[in-house]
Amino acid sequence: MAKAVDIGSKRLINLAPDAWIQWVTQRPEVVVKEILGSEFQWISRETDVLVKAYSATHGDFLILNELQLRYTAQMPLRMRAYAALAQERYRLPTYPVLVNILPPPSTLTIVNSYEQEFLGLRAIQDYRVINLWEIDAEIVFEQPLPSLLPFVPILRGGGEVSVVQRALQALRADEQLNELESLLAFFASFVLDTPLVQQIMRWDMAVLRESPWYHEIEQRGIQEGARRQLIRVLEQRFGEISHEVEARLEGESVEQLEILMDSAIAVNSLDEFLTIISA
Fold first, then answer.
1. At what angle do helices 254-266 and 270-278 cross, to 10 degrees?
2. How many H-runs (helices) and E-runs (strands) does the chain carry?
3. Which in 12, 31, 113, 262 has the greatest CB count within 10 A?
């Protein structure tokens, strides 16, 4: 059996770990000591990479890297939980970084901290946010940052055919990078016509299926379809639905959307439905 190709977050960061952590922390003196396991008891995610780093100023510390296809309303709580779990397990200060690959819906605001107050007690977790669509594609070639080469098409200024071809040449010039060509093609398909992408580079579905982002795109497609169907039912029954109501349905699982569909059919008013989703 052929060995599965690894094109997940850990593989990408491992291409040039020092360059990666210096970029996400904006501190050129930081170096990698070890790539650690990010499995915490029952929690394990392919998009998390935990790095043990060192600087003369701060000593040993952790960098928690979360590469998220699209930001969701649940991300602040997740970043809080993972940062706490990492610090508890390794007993080191933790620097959490959230890298968002694609822009979220316009109804969703990206925040860089988790805050909650309950019964007079406060929980706060700050984390750094990097939105790839705000990063200049030229940085990838100048620094260089080989970990970001597959993402070049979705970076700022990276959607031009000439820039995508430049990233492709960089991948093909390095034996340990050329297996990432299919991932570059995948993200190029977001900004270029698919036939053009298939014409200039490899489109290997077997390789793409090894990417956690490919599976997330599939799941998001099913999830968004269920959400749109639920909104259509609500509109047919109760008229135009506000953006606020649509936003409250963002991030719900397919299973929860199916339950809400049953409620949308059974309730007598939109207010009754809103009471259910607020419960």
1. 150
2. 12, 7
3. 12
- The residue among 92 and 193 whose pLDDT is bigger is 92
Say which amino acid occupies 45: R
Instruction: Give the C-alpha distances (Å, rounded to integers) separating 148 from 17, 39, 143, 171, 244.
Output: 12, 24, 11, 11, 35
Instruction: Report the residue count for the chain.
Output: 279
Q: What is the pLDDT of residue 3?
A: 41
CA gap 70, 102 in Å, rounded: 5
Distance, CA of 138 to CA of 156 (rounded, Å)? 9
44-69 tens-digit pLDDT: 555 689 999 999 999 999 999 999 98
β-bridge partners, 279: none
Torsion angle, alpha carbons of 195, 197, 202, 203, to 10 = -70
The amino acid present at 247, given as its one-letter code, is: A
SS3 content of the chain, % helix, strand, coil (to 5): 50, 20, 30
What CA–CA distance (Å, rounded) separates 158 from 165?
A: 10
DSSP 4: P
**C-alpha 4, offset from chain centre:** 22
Place of tokens 């100023």: 57
pLDDT tens digits, 163-195:
999 999 999 998 888 888 888 988 998 888 878
Structure tokens at 205: 């579905």
Whole-structure pTM value: 0.76
233 contacts: CB under 8 Å, gap ≥ 6 = 261, 264, 265
Which residues does 121 contact at the CB level (< 8 Å), separation at least 6? Answer: none
Q: Tell me if residue 56 falls in helix, strand or coil.
A: coil
Per the CB < 8 A criterion, the answer to whether 146 and 171 are in contact is no
- Residue matched to tokens 């960098």: 63
